[in-house]
Amino acid sequence: MKPYVICHMLGSVDGRIKQNIWGFKDHHKYFEETAEKIQADAWLVGRVTMQEFSSKQTYSLTHETTAIPKEDFVAKQPAKTYAVVIDPSGKCFWDTNMVSTEHVIEVLTEKVSSAYLAHLQSKNVSYVFGGKQELNLELVLQKLYKLFNIQVLRIDGGGHVNGSFLEAGLLDEFSLVLAPVADGTIGSPTVFEAEEGYGNRKATHFTIKSVERIYDDFLWIRYQVVKDNTTSR
Ligand SMILES: NC(=O)c1ccc[n+]([C@@H]2O[C@H](COP(=O)([O-])OP(=O)(O)OC[C@H]3O[C@@H](n4cnc5c(N)ncnc54)[C@H](OP(=O)(O)O)[C@@H]3O)[C@@H](O)[C@H]2O)c1
């Protein structure tokens, strides 16, 4: 069993997601107020995005730590909603095990050191292993379901993490808040960053679940992912 997965993003008309030059005064609300309307047990982000929420301190790891087995760690703590980060090499550091009201779960590979695991345990941050060197995202979803009872998961970006789940065929819905701006920055991350060039992959198709005009000139489009892409339109 695995969670139902909804990817939620704020994008420009050209699919860019960094808002540096968009010039909105209250730019967080366009993403957050819509995200809050999607009922989910957890949100998940990539390591780059999570570093906006994790510790700003530099932690020096104690390398003489005794070896800690590479086994999943479910912290004893009261929260029932979660903030999950895809952090294969263990680059996020934590002062606390919470982001807002959500308990932090680190998704790691076995590349991480015992010293890093000791840091997570010292902060009572939960972690799961998703592979030895590379992540198996389907396995990750199964663990989130089984160990934390996460039945609905919202993936909140950035583009690389979205692209990984898209490529693995693990998205059920895509929720796009389309901002009325053209960005045009070459090289800036887009909503889905899956692969360089055109491989053998086929684009993912969607059908529309709902469309709503919000904040005057924004559109909130909710799409269902077409799982069997063989049907021609
Ligand atoms: N507009 C919006 O709605 C929105 C939402 C969220 C974020 N953002 C913006 O997006 C930007 C960040 O996006 P991003 O695409 O650069 O980064 P990201 O997706 O947040 O993080 C990418 C990192 O996550 C890890 N990762 C993701 N998928 C993986 C996989 N399948 N296997 C192993 N590791 C994986 C890797 O970490 P390592 O490098 O450590 O290996 C990778 O470099 C930020 O500027 C943020 O503000 C915008």
Automatic annotation (TrEMBL):
The record's keywords, sorted A to Z, are: NADP, Oxidoreductase
The residue ranges of the Bacterial bifunctional deaminase-reductase C-terminal domain are 3-218
- UniProt keyword Oxidoreductase, yes or no: yes
Q: Pathway, per UniProt? A: Cofactor biosynthesis; riboflavin biosynthesis
Is NADP found in the keyword set?
A: yes
- Which Pfam families did the record assign? RibD_C
Q: Which InterPro entries match?
A: DHFR-like_dom_sf, RibDG_C, Riboflavin_Biosynth_HTPR
UniProt protein name: RibD family protein
Please give the organism.
Rhodocytophaga aerolata
